[in-house]
């Protein structure tokens, strides 16, 4: 009896040792992997032999949360159909599971079993969406939405953003919950077009994932507001350079060019344009109020107007606007025109003076002013305008080259040169001679008038005396006749 009990105890001990040996021989591994929505992942099945070296009774299985996905037995593999990854997965060498076109719902635990080996891979899926499908107009602010999914507790992610020039961008991040993050980015400029990178990081589980996404910013390579300066009768070309060709914008859009004299004034449409998806530019002139031309043969999409001889009333605000899907971007050029005049015009005679007038189409910038300068003159020959004055006069008797400058922030933006010509010597002599001759002529005329007056006065007195003499004689004859009759 004792011997049989001892034998049973030994049998149990041997069974426990065998079970313990089998259990200890089982290999379990846990792995973690991150995938992006729309991308693909390859999940490992380590320590498996090549298919040619497996015995016929070897079994390899892939499961998702204990649901069979694929099984290989007797050297034949088959898929369980249908499954959530049907058509998006296949088995690679060493029985690696490849899943394409990942979805947020693909997150979970994938297990590969081979003999005594079992590998659990926790697949963490991240999705990044960009507003407007990554196609923006300048000065628009994009919004990024980052979403994550996992069968494990969701980690708290830190987000770092880099623009197309590899400069770090500081966005505003709203964390609704651990599953969704909203990232608001600053207003974009055309130079921001390119590939951006969103880095996400977590310490537990360890996640270091770079997500690249494309950004296209359609707009003008000009600044939002630009001032251009010109003098009357000069040739002026106003240009707006579009970046659609540079960023390979493959969608059509339209636009127009408007002009108004000043802020708040009525706007006039000068031309409209459209650019096809192939990048062809078509322009149509809309106004003949301003004498301008539309230059041809432009290498890249550029909106241009040309003034062969700019007039003072051509000044004002020229605004180019492009439109895409109801949204618009614009760039403005303010044309400032300068003119100079002299009163009186013509050569300056000796001792005379002239008033030089310089005027610009205002208003000027706060730190801008006009300045008259006598070239090669002294400081006394310089006169500056007051702030906000758009007209400056100088009264001078000095001949030579005078220049009117428009100075803004200590920089001469434009200059208009006017040459005050001095009358030549013979002209001065002619003028002096004419003056003397005129004076002598006036004196002679005066003398003639005096002489004529004296002569006329004398003739009048003589005629009066003669009339009196005739009257006296007549009276005497009458008396003598009466005396004779009495006799």
Mass-distribution shape: rod-shaped
Structural category is alpha+beta
CA-to-CA gap between the ends? 234 Å
Number of helices: 2
Sequence stretches where pLDDT stays below 50 over 5 or more residues: 1-25
What does this protein look like?
It is a single chain. With 487 residues, the protein is of the alpha+beta class. Helix content is 18%, strand content 44%. Strands 1, 3, 4, 5, 8, 9, 11, 14 and 15 form a 9-stranded mixed β-sheet that branches. A hairpin with a 2-residue loop joins strand 4 and strand 5. It is rod-shaped and about 185 Å long. The relative contact order is 0.07. Mean pLDDT is 85; it is low at 1-25.
Feature tags:
9-stranded mixed beta sheet, 18% helix, rod-shaped, 487 residues, alpha+beta
Sequence-ordered SSE layout with sheet pairings:
Elements: H1 2-25, E1 27-36, E2 41-43, E3 59-64, E4 67-73, E5 76-79, E6 89-91, E7 97-99, E8 108-114, E9 117-130, E10 135-137, E11 143-149, E12 158-162, E13 168-169, E14 172-175, E15 180-184, E16 194-202, E17 207-218, E18 225-231, E19 236-241, E20 253-260, E21 268-275, E22 281-285, E23 302-307, E24 316-324, E25 327-343, E26 354-360, E27 368-374, E28 382-384, E29 391-396, E30 400-408, E31 411-420, H2 425-486
């Amino acid at each position: 009896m004792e011997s049989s009990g001892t034998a049973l105890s030994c049998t149990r001990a041997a069974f426990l040792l065998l079970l313990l040996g089998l259990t200890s021989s089982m290999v379990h591994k846990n792995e973690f992997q991150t995938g992006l929505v729309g991308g693909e992942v390859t999940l490992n099945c380590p320590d498996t032999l090549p298919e040619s070296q497996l015995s016929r009774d070897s079994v390899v299985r892939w499961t998702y949360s204990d649901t069979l996905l694929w099984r290989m037995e007797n050297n034949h593999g088959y898929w369980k159909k249908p499954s959530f990854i049907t058509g998006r997965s296949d088995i690679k060498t060493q029985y690696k599971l490849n899943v394409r076109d990942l979805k947020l719902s693909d997150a979970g635990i994938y297990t590969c079993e081979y003999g005594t080996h079992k590998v659990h891979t926790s697949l963490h899926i991240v999705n990044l969406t960009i507003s407007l499908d990554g196609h923006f107009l300048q000065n628009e602010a994009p919004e990024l939405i980052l979403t994550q999914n996992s069968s494990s507790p969701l980690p708290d992610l830190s987000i770092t953003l880099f623009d197309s020039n590899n400069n770090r961008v500081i966005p505003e991040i709203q964390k609704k919950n651990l599953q969704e993050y909203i990232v608001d980015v600053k207003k974009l400029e055309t130079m921001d077009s390119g590939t951006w990178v969103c880095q996400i990081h977590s310490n537990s589980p360890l996640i270091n994932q770079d997500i690249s996404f494309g950004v296209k910013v359609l707009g003008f390579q000009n600044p939002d507001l630009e001032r251009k300066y010109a003098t009357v009768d000069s040739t002026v070309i106003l240009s707006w350079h579009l970046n659609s060709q540079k960023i390979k914008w493959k969608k059509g859009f339209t636009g127009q060019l408007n002009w108004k004299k000043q802020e708040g004034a009525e706007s006039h449409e000068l031309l409209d344009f459209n650019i096809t998806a192939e990048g062809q530019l078509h322009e149509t002139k809309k106004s003949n109020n301003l004498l301008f031309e539309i230059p041809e043969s432009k290498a890249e999409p550029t909106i241009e107007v040309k003034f062969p001889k700019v007039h003072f009333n051509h000044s004002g605000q020229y605004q180019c606007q492009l439109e895409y899907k109801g949204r618009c971007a614009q760039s403005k050029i303010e044309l400032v025109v300068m003119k100079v005049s002299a009163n009186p015009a013509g050569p300056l005679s000796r001792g005379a003076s002239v008033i030089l007038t310089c005027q610009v189409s205002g208003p000027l910038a706060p730190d801008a002013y006009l300045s008259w300068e006598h070239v090669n003159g002294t400081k006394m020959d310089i006169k500056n305008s007051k702030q906000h004055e758009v007209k400056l006069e100088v009264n001078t008797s000095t001949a030579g080259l005078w220049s009117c400058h428009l100075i803004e922030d200590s920089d001469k933006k434009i200059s208009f040169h006017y040459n005050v010509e001095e009358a030549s010597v013979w002209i001065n002599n002619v003028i002096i001679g004419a003056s003397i001759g005129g004076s002598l002529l006036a004196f002679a005329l005066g003398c003639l008038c005096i002489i004529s007056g004296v002569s006329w006065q004398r003739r009048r007195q003589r005629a009066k005396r003669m009339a009196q003499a005739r009257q006296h004689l007549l009276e005497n004859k009458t008396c003598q006749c009466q005396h004779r009759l009495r006799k």
